[in-house]
Design brief:
The protein is α+β, with helices and mostly antiparallel strands and about 270 residues long. It has a domain of about 140 residues: Lipopolysaccharide (LPS) transport protein A like domain (lipopolysaccharide transport protein A fold, Sandwich). Helix content is about 30%, strand content about 35%. It is built from four helices and 13 strands. Strands 1, 2, 3, 4, 5, 6, 7, 8, 9, 10, 11, 12 and 13 form a 13-stranded antiparallel sheet that branches. Strand 8 and strand 9 form a beta hairpin. The longest helix is centred in the last third of the chain and has 36 residues. It is elongated. It starts with a helix and ends in a 12-residue tail after the last helix.
Length: about 270
């Protein structure tokens, strides 16, 4: 019995080998794996210029381009923004991004963080820069911490390419730091501006009046010449009325009283 068992072992080994050979001989289909046409896994820099002046510089550690798409995918996104003098004024960071080969747009997404030249920080899940209108925009939720420490939140964001002037589009809420103190300081500043402006106007008023007084007067228009004809000398009045003028009202009343009393008297002229 023991010999029969040992005799079966070779037969089993032969059967296993034949089965393995049959499995190896089976043809398996090739799997076609798509690979990018261009791939960089080291530090890569890309620049964008506006009228010959460096506008921004993109730095990434991974870049790939697919043959059937005119799009480049990068991760992470590190963008430095420059002013007209070539100084870096702002930057943008994101987990990933994509752009076309002509650099007409840059789309950053995933934990986007940007810092403006004035010191405000912007956080969102996506930002897109469009070369056509040269604006940075998003329709997503955004959170901005201003240079004064104010926290503003809302939906939608728009800024110029240098991140210098920005605004939140809708549903804006915020927390303002030391609002009462800042309002008082602003009121004082406005009061000083109004006072200095009034002082300047008051100082300018006498100067203008003095200038008006010192200015030479315009010559008056000549009066029309009128020819005067000398009148004849007045003739002396030699009539009796001039010699004996009419009695006054008081004299007439006195004469009337005399007549009423029946006295006959003759009024004496004044010049006598």
């Amino acid at each position: 019995m023991i010999l029969q068992k040992w005799a079966l072992i070779p037969l089993l080994l032969i059967g296993l080998l034949m089965t393995a050979c049959e499995e190896i001989e089976e043809e398996k289909p090739w799997l076609q794996v798509e690979r990018p046409e261009m791939l960089f896994t080291d530090t890569t820099l890309m620049d964008s210029y506006d009228k010959g002046v460096l506008a921004w510089k993109l730095k990434t550690a991974y870049l790939e381009r697919w043959g059937d798409k005119e799009v480049v995918f990068v991760r992470p996104v590190l963008v430095d923004i420059y002013d007209s003098l070539g100084e870096r004024t702002a930057f943008l960071r994101a987990d990933s991004g994509r752009m076309d080969l002509k650099f007409t747009y840059v789309y950053a997404y995933g934990h986007v963080y940007a810092l403006t030249p004035k010191g405000a920080s912007v956080r969102s899940d996506s930002l897109i820069w469009n070369k056509k209108d040269n604006l940075v925009k998003t329709e997503s939720y955004v959170r901005v911490v201003s240079e004064e420490g104010d926290v503003l939140q809302g939906r939608g964001f728009e800024s110029d390419a240098h991140m210098d002037n920005w605004r939140i589009l809708s549903s804006v809420t915020g927390i303002f730091q030391d609002a009462a103190r800042r309002l008082k300081e602003e009121d004082k500043s406005q009061a000083k501006e109004i006072e200095s402006r009034d002082s300047a106007q008051a100082a300018a008023a006498p100067a203008s009046s003095t200038a008006a007084t010192a200015a030479p007067a315009k010559p008056a228009a000549p009066l029309p010449v009128k020819t005067l004809t000398p009148s004849a000398p007045a003739k002396a009045d030699t009539s009796k009325e001039a010699e004996n003028p009419a009695p006054t009202k008081a004299e007439q009343e006195f004469l009337s009283k005399i007549r009423n009393r029946g006295l006959r008297a003759k009024a004496k002229p004044r010049d006598e």
